[in-house]
# Entry
Amino acid sequence: MMDNDINKIKLEIKAKRLSNYETKKNNSNNNFFYKFGLKVLFVILLTISILIILKKYPNLKEKFYTEVYEKNISFASINNLYKNTFGNPIPFSNYFESKTKPVFSEKLHYYQSSKYQDGVKLVVDKNYLVPSLESGMIVFIGDKDNYPNTVIIEQVNGIDVWYSNLENINVNLYDYIDKGSLIGSTIDDNLYLVYKKDGKVLDYNDYI
# Structure
């Protein structure tokens, strides 16, 4: 009789735990769809508001087109601001990122630096694993001007950084990567960097 009572109590506890788990799971799902719905609603309202303002004030239309279409927009900065404010706009992306993100977070190390064309040549270890100097978006992969095997990152601070002389490139076009993320490895013991903003070359001494 006592064993039956104990088993009955165990079953009741198990059923209660299962019920609590299902309740938490449902609340979590509801919370996710609620937040995602708010993000979509915000984007829709923002778009409608801009269209209404442009229609009501025609003199602003030309200025708007100039700012949006003619000036260089830092998508990396916008993406960073949006993620910090509203989280990732793509459902479940944070889950998959946490599962697939490689373990690598380093600072740039080099032995010598010297001017090279528009940028700088750094002497590093052979086949050095190159980290990103800052968070940003991958906007170019390939040969660029006189720099072969180049990856260009549009940083959140609005500066474009060229990383050249790379192989085993570990990023894809339009990826958003964090500071210290692995970009690729150098072909030999040289790494070439170029710093630009709004199409103008910056002095690497201010950033290296």
